[in-house]
Design a protein that fits this description.
Blueprint: H1 8-19, E1 23-28, H2 33-44, H3 58-62, E2 73-80, E3 93-96, H4 105-123, E4 129-132, H5 140-146, E5 151-152, E6 158-159, E7 167-174, H6 194-198, E8 204-206, E9 209-210, H7 216-222, H8 230-233, E10 239-241, H9 245-248, E11 272-274, H10 275-279, H11 283-289, H12 299-314
Parallel strand pairs: 3-10
Antiparallel strand pairs: 1-2, 2-7, 3-11, 4-7, 5-6, 8-9
Helix pairs in contact: 1-4
The structure holds cobalamin and iron/sulfur cluster (2 copies).
């Protein structure tokens, strides 16, 4: 190891926490081999549903050098997004998944990681890095497990001991060879199957494996179909955008402290959204209403399809 980087990992970890990340770990930038095999099998079973972008160069998702050839270390961060509000069962509104209540996490996590990279470059002028938050072709959960932030729950979300699964994940690929975190955290799901039993559509095909075709999150966010699939429509349970059922029932998610990040405080109308408001939106009012919100992912046509589907169920 280059002596210039002795204690570099510790300093980067400390700085990441000062910037506001909830957890940070460092892993060597070697390939995610077992994860790559599972990803290939998942794609082969067509569990990616309509997300055909997942088929594009899956090798890139497991090999950081395909994204950033100089990568030597991966700094992995988790950011708590838990806030207090509750969902309503009113038929006039639809439930929004907790991850989309506040500002778009791609922007919030990305901004903090860019701040961390700038600081690293000030300390070590030869440092170069690449910021990754979800949209870059990496396997965020695989890296988080590798860096010791938590374990993969049977619902397939990363679970941390301190914040449950209410965390976003991001990475900083660095050309610096840093000392890495040793042990991965052991799986603590044990014999529990609460998430699998609670999923109304049977989307958790087997422990640790999601069939996106059946997942409400995929149907309400990623699907571009003009009509909701009937077998999903019948089990929506009031979800308008995303779904948190498998996370809400998880015992690890019942004592999460509220996030310190003010941008994750819920925006008005983004916890329980009035269906009539969505159906009245025009492209112009939609653009203003959902500026800097993760809910733009479904596009206006997807949001209006979801609102129509929920309204029709109530008739
Ligand atoms: C595609 C995708 C989806 C798809 C597919 C979900 C999925 N589980 O793959 C859909 C649209 C359904 C989805 C939904 C959601 N998503 Co999403 N999604 C992604 C994305 C872009 C890629 C995930 C991926 O690579 N999937 C492919 C599969 C094969 O990979 P995997 O899930 O890691 O699979 C592993 C397990 O199956 C495991 N495995 C398989 N068999 C076995 C057996 C054993 C014994 C073990 C231990 C493991 C194991 O091995 C695989 C490889 O490691 C990531 C961002 C990113 N770039 O990583 C966000 C990401 C996973 N999503 C996220 C979120 C927040 C959500 C939702 C909660 C949003 C919502 N509320 O609606 C839901 C959760 C639904 C759920 N139960 O998973 C967060 C999760 C944060 C966390 N704490 O884990 C991520 C990481 C984004 C981020 N950067 O924060 N998502
Ligand atoms: S997000 Fe909802 S539909 Fe998808 S696996 Fe979890 S409980 Fe099932
Ligand atoms: S509900 Fe139970 S099985 Fe599912 S992720 Fe949580 S602890 Fe694991």
């Amino acid at each position: 190891m280059n002596p210039n980087y002795t204690n570099g990992g510790d300093r980067i970890r400390r700085r990441a926490l000062e910037i506001g990340f909830s957890k940070v770990g460092i892993a060597p930038a070697s390939k995610l081999c077992a994860e790559g095999e599972r990803l290939a099998e998942w794609l082969q079973r067509s569990y990616h549903g309509e997300m055909s972008w997942m088929l594009r160069d899956p090798e890139q998702r497991t090999d950081p050098h395909r994204i950033f050839p100089a990568a030597r270390s991966v700094v992995v961060v988790a950011l708590n997004y838990y806030t207090q509000p509750q969902h309503s069962d009113s038929s006039k509104t639809g439930k929004v998944s907790r991850y989309a209540w506040g500002d778009d996490y791609h922007e919030v996590v990305g901004e903090k990681l860019r701040e961390l990279l700038s600081w690293i470059k000030e300390q070590w002028p030869e440092a170069e890095g690449k910021v990754c938050v979800d949209i870059q072709p990496t396997m965020d959960k695989g890296w988080a497990v590798r860096a010791g932030l938590g374990w993969m729950g049977k619902h397939t979300n990363l679970i941390t001991q301190e914040y449950g699964s209410w965390v976003f994940i991001g990475e900083l690929l660095l050309n610096l060879e840093l000392e890495c975190d040793g042990e991965e955290i052991a799986d603590q799901c044990g014999s529990c199957t609460l998430c699998i039993d609670a999923c109304p559509t049977g989307a958790i095909a087997e422990p640790y494996v999601i069939d996106s075709n059946l997942c409400i999150s995929h149907a309400t966010i990623e699907s571009r179909a003009p009509q909701m699939r009937e077998d999903i429509d019948a089990h929506l349970e009031g979800w308008f955008y995303g779904c948190d059922i498998c996370q809400d029932v998880c015992p690890w998610n019942h004592a999460t402290p509220t996030t310190d990040e003010p941008r994750f405080e819920p925006r008005e109308g983004n916890v329980n959204t009035f269906l009539s408001e969505i159906l009245e939106l025009t492209p112009e009012t939609y653009a203003t209403r959902f500026r800097h919100s993760a809910m733009k992912r479904a596009k206006l046509s997807g949001l209006q399809r979801n609102a129509r589907t929920l309204q029709n169920r109530e008739r």
